[in-house]
Hints:
Helix content is about 55%, strand content about 20%. The strands form 2 sheets. It has a 4-stranded mixed β-sheet. A two-stranded antiparallel sheet has the order 3-4. The radius of gyration is 21 Å and the shape is globular.
Amino acid sequence: MKKRLRKNIELGVLFGLICAIAVSFFGFERRMDELREGVLRLHILANSDSEEDQQLKLKVRDRILETAAPYLENADSIEAAIAAVNRNMDEIILAANAVIKEEGFSYTATAAIEKNFFENREYDDFTLPAGEYNSLTVRIGAAGGHNWWCVVFPGVCLPSAKKSGLEKAVSAESADIAKNASRYKICFKTVEIFEKIKNKIFKR
């Protein structure tokens, strides 16, 4: 009787611990969702991995950042940032194609707001979790080469050098987690594994 009681207590404690971990994880995951939904990334895919195409990718990147900076710097929300990009999409595409032509290549670029999967990414001041993000995706030519990405809202990689804080895009609590990711290494890694599995399942 005592053994059974002790076993039931141990099972109850274990179940309680599992529940606590699950609640903690999914609470953390909700904060991660806020980070994913609050930022806009720039995602540029090179035509190929040749040295020339990779250099072209960086030149296209610089021109797009310069072109997009005026209206992205004034955006005060992710919705405003996406709307501004969509309003000026033709200008962005023209800017990308102008660079390609200047550099003597015959192919062209396309651009659109899309959802793309990214792994955990550490920046100088913060870390973004793995998962799907809204991104301004630019495809150069066959888009078969290594890509480049950064955050354009808030304006982390805009040429103004005024790095907007994450607080502009998300709550102070979520921004604090991103800025102090070293405190949450296990959580970030768990989220990355979870998101990779989810991404594979839904891509089938």
